[in-house]
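Our collaborator T.R. sent over the components below with a one-line note: 'Predict the complex.' Nothing else. No constraints on interfaces, no templates requested, no preferences about which chain binds where. So this is a plain run: every listed entity goes in together, and whatever single assembly comes back becomes the starting point for the next discussion.
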Amino acid sequence: MTTPSHDPVTFDIIQNSLQAISDEMFAAMRKTAMSAIIYEVLDMGTGICAADGEIASSGAGIPSFIGVLDKAAKAILRKHPVTSIYPGDVFVTNDPFYGGVTHLNDVVLVMPVFAEGEIVAWTANIAHWNDVGGMVPGSMSTDAKEIYQEGLRIPAIKIIEKGVSNQSVMDLMTVNSRLPEFLKGDMWAAIAAVRIGEKRILDLVAKYGKGTFIAAMKHFMDYGEQVTLKALKELPKGKFSFAEEQDSGQIYKVTVEITDDEFIVDLTDNPDQTLTPSNASRDGVVVSCQMAIKAITDVSAPANGGSFRPLVVKTRPGSIFDAQEPAAHGFYYEVEIRVFDLILRCLAQHLPEKLSAGSFASICGTVLGGPHPDTGRHFTIVEPELGGWGAMPGRDGNNAIFSGFHGETFNCPAEIAEARYGLYVDQLALNPEEGGEGQWRGGKGIRMDYRVRADGNFLTCGYTRSRIMPWGMEGGHEGTGNHVDVIKSDGSRKRYSFATGIELNKGDVVRVVTGNGGGYGDPKKRDRAAVLDDIKNGYLSAERARTIYGVEI
Amino acid sequence: MSDKTIRVATDVGGTFTDLVYFETDNATGRQTVRTAKSDTTPPNFEQGVLNVLAKAEVDPADIAFFAHGTTVVINALTERKGAKTALITTEGFRDVLEIARGNRPDFFNLQYVKPEPFVPRYLCREVPGRIAYTGAERSPLELEGLPAILEDFRAEGVEAIAICLLHSYADPRHEQAVAAEVRRLWPEVSVVASHQITREWREYERASTAVLSAYVQPVASRYLGRLEDGLASKDFGGQLYVMQSNCGVDSLAATREIPITMVESGPASGFWGAAELGRILGEKNVLALDIGGTTAKCSLIENGHVKIMTDYWIERDRTASGYPIMVPVVDLVEIGNGGGSIAWVDDFGKLHVGPQSAGAMPGPAAYARGGTQATTTDANLALGRIDKDYFCGGTITADMKAVDGALNALAEKLGLSPIEAARGILRIANNNMINALKLVSLNRGHDPRDFTLVAFGGGGAMHAVALATELGMKKVVIPRGASVFSAWGMMMSDLRRDFFVSRLIEQSDARSAALEALLHETKLRAVEQFAKEGVAADKVKLVPFIKCRYQNQEHAVEVEFTSATVDAASIQAMIDRFHTAYEREYTYRLDAPVEIVGLHLVASAEVGKLEMNALPTTGATLDQAVKSRRDVDYALEGVHEATIYDLAKLEPGMRFSGPAILEDSGTTVVIHPGNRVSIDAYGNTHIELGA
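Returned assembly:
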């Protein structure tokens, strides 16, 4: 009895299995990682790439990480002749100029999968490692001017060759971290994940044969392309341009052209790269564009290399969206999410059934560290924050949810934070600020207070959408901004959005405030019952109900 | 003493209420089994139970042991038919339910809608006062505002109150004080505090657990009360136990207090049954598979142990974050693939099976109730695996024209022949189930080849051999009465409670004393609780598992603590086992310090469970069990003429080989070519795979 190959059902089974393998890699890594930002926040991703490096399937996690893994695999293929790549190798990169795409904290591991002497796939993962050296704890400094200040650069090299660990590389990485034990734990979690993926793919190849496996991969990519093309046909065609002022005063511009078979994002007319860590690599900006095209085409279909074939991205080398060596990249993600948000804002009025009014739209990366008052051990929190999303026709925005750049990301419970970090979490509440009113209103951001319990703590934050608020649409009000208030024990108070190494001592409070999303439609048209509900639920004062919504009680 | 012992298990499902009756002759040991089915009778579900007892001609006065399973809790949750519930929480955390964890599994979808909390914001209220993570009081509880809060709740028609305060897992005194004051001020309202259900950390999960328990409490309590009254009115005087999600049973009184523990009781009894069957047969490592009409569920049993965890969520999938319920639930993976799962082709020519199900209405196309879409059951009929002339035990005439019509439509879209489409449905459905089985085995470091597959439920036996073959397993066991196996599992269950306690114990000189204190106080709590159920301390079996992790990790691995004394040596032995268990599950070990993060204490006591006796043989021959022969399509293995056996006529000791089909009114067992079959002393079907 021979197994029929190249039949559609076999293809489906192989493709489903690739998804299951990516999920398994994700689960394995999550459970074994040492850092809360990986296992709790799930600032990580896993995936399988085809032999040429195109992404075939990905595990849950952060959508913005999925587009990274293929670029890493391709960078390895560019740097290493195929003849020098062996079964059992594991590559590591974290450098945006060597396929690392993001910033040095995000470490990517990639493993080739060999069948009959030939690479048939790659397994890969990416995760935010707490500290990779550099000028400040946590490695991300808003003061960095060059990438050299942001930590150890790992340029797509082998950490394991033919199954044997390269102890020299591991030692070098470990000794460059302020948190070497965390680094070791996270590294082995990542190694375990790519190895599990390799093993499972080999099982699959053994069962169905190499030819069938490769054909199924190719078919899967074509399927991804067909899904995007079909969705593109249903979008309004044309050329749409938009320019938006940023918190920094810079103007970002985009032109999006949608045709029957292409989605062209032109970002060439934009500022030069800067001597700050707010730069992005071209690869990183492509990821922003991939997320945008995915969000407005078919969100339920798998995202693979084929899905993004119709995407064309134009950038200018040396610009903030195509930064060249030695640009610093620490806060690349705020640049990327700004590009993502810019594309959404550019298209929102043309696609009201798919896109909302403005959201808080920032990672709101918060780094807080110091000595644990009970154990004496040093701790570092590295976390994104929850915020409010914009309203859409027919419904209010989501309250307290991570940005569009995050997905299956979890916030840290106050009970865990208090035990692990030795801080007090005085409150974690919805942001009571006014704003974002409309026929449908924006979702609420959060207000969270961390009270520091020991001297010698520090805070770094990198929030955008702090000065330029989330936009309202069709008469809806704009939302509110993201910022951090540091309230010293003497009662003095200072507001920050982009800052490094703010000193904190016992009794000081770090108040994280994230934006309320923008509203959609004229507030006067809001259903009276919905306004009364908002008052009852404490989202709205009776006074504001009268002045903004025109509802008298 | 009566000369026979009667045990009854009833299981209230969505459509039917099932009954299994076991009568053991105390002199001869001879056992008689009866099963019955009657309609489920919402909203007065207890009436269905009394009906099925009457239908089976069982006099409640004769019953010694009555085990009851019900979906009343999960139904109240999914249909949003619980009580109007309010939440009292710590100052600063009123929005705990609204905020939840902020995650979004459907991560490209910018139109994602966060699940709506079970308690609206205006019914979430705060009290000042803080406990630290160590359990120490940071600031005293202030109850001055409580009367006004309760007045508001009364005015809003609140029926149930959940209380969840920060760090109550470490010290519940504030929660206890709030609960006592609520009861004093408003004795009629239903109230539950989170520490009564769980002593684990994570405030959102604990608050959600308390809220969902409060939400179902009035409904479940009324139901259980009426069941008790209904049985009492028929002079029932035996022991009444309710099936729980942790594979144990518990008393009716305890269940009325914390009904949320019943949430997954249905699957739990089947998996417990598989573990008990494994014990009887000497099969300690079992992969258990339960295939029903709309879903397939599986669980792994290692060395006789079912794994109980508290990482359980309802309504959670790839597109929704769902709601956590932190109660002990058997570790299972569930997928939307059952007999009624609908096969469909997407816009790009890809074939999918499930998760949409044709349910009971319209059901598979073959039911002739208007179903036009092909289901897994229709594919099984088309391939001759299910006998079209003995469909549903002959109670339904299979509409093969409708089956052909549904398959033709599908085949056209796929560019395949109808038979190839039917094979495709089976292969896709099997692949989905294989991925689920891998999730509970390979994904957790277990090689399925070291396990025996025990398959049950309406569809388990139909797919079991194909799945086991694919996974390289050597043996499949189909239990006798596979379609009502869950009810059998209930009769095999112990009175059981699982105590999960979060407590961080770092590596230090004080570690032994701290662990000893944790063990001591939790065991004391267990023994006290069992005493209330009339179980003496020496009858309570206590098995402690310690949750360990490498320092700074979050996810812990459970290792059994086998020593009676806690000292440096026994802790070291436990840590050694931790390294081994960790390495097996995750492929590496670290030399990092190991810390203890909590305890899982399993407390159980036998309460009159069934002891299985061998079946008598009549001397009938194998030939007498043969019904016929027909062509059966084994998908990838081609078409073979199979011998059709009447499952009811197969007796202990009989042996034969595949290809074959074994059928009775509730079960169809598909035996592939080359399989070797034997019937064991209890009537279970053993299938040996491979050469």
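Summary for T.R.: The longest helix of chain B spans residues 203-233.
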